[in-house]
Design goal:
single chain; 228 residues; alpha+beta; Lambda Exonuclease, Chain A; five-stranded mixed sheet; four-stranded mixed sheet; 7 helices; 9 strands
């Protein structure tokens, strides 16, 4: 059995954008050049967690859930997911931004985003959130993060729209905070892994999508796709 560990973030973009690149990364071990993300995103996420960890979210806004923000440094790693038709197993491995703990003891996995989230991107992030949910509900071992009583996960979205500065040279980036929940459906996510992801990884390398920018780049040097 070939064991493959997958980062939840790759379900948000790489899988949909290019199954060919997804297959290359996890089967051929050919990774794309990493994206250069501005450090400001990590700074904003970290500042929110540091300021509001173990605090009621309604202190931020009455429009946010009444729940306590909890953080964790433990890894999320799921038990292997298998499809008996294929000699490949998949494990989810990553770290969560945090989770919300509600008064009734239920919990929501939460992820922080600094951008405007349109409907197209929302569905991609939904898959990423479900990866984390599956992992904490089905931990690989006792050292991995384990949570129960999960309810709908969500995004805490910061949408910057204003910049200000005072006479002491203190600058501020202002914007709206929005809570975007998603319906929790662990069975559908597990079915997605079993019936779509595992067959893709167990099969031959798929044809690169014509719109894949990396494939377009390689074609300039004469690369051609040949069916195995």
């Amino acid at each position: 059995m070939r064991e493959i560990t997958i980062a939840p973030s790759d379900f948000a973009f790489l899988y949909d954008e290019s199954p060919w690149a997804f297959h290359q990364k996890y089967i051929s071990k050919i990774k794309r050049p990493p994206l250069i993300l501005p450090r400001i995103f990590n700074i904003i996420d970290g500042a929110i967690k540091d300021k509001y960890a173990n605090e009621d979210f309604t202190k931020i806004s009455k429009n946010l859930p009444q729940a306590i923000l909890r953080t964790s440094s433990d890894w999320v790693k799921s038990k292997p997911i298998v499809n008996p038709k294929y000699d490949v197993s998949v494990q989810i491995i990553g770290k969560i931004d945090g989770y919300l703990e509600y008064p009734d003891g239920t919990k929501s996995i939460i992820d922080f985003k600094t951008s405007e989230i349109n409907e197209k991107y929302a569905e991609k992030y939904n898959r990423q959130l479900h990866s984390y949910c599956y992992g904490v509900l089905n931990p690989d071992n006792k050292s991995c993060l384990s949570l129960d009583n999960l309810v709908d996960p969500g995004l805490l979205v910061f949408e910057p729209n204003e910049f200000s500065i005072d006479y002491n040279s203190k600058a501020r980036l202002l914007g709206n905070l929005k809570w975007q929940p998603f319906t929790l459906d662990i069975q559908a996510f597990e079915s997605f892994i079993i019936n779509e992801v595992i067959p893709l990884l167990a099969g031959a390398e798929p044809q690169p999508p014509a719109e894949d920018p990396y494939w377009k780049y390689l074609q300039q040097f004469g690369f051609e796709y040949e069916q195995e």
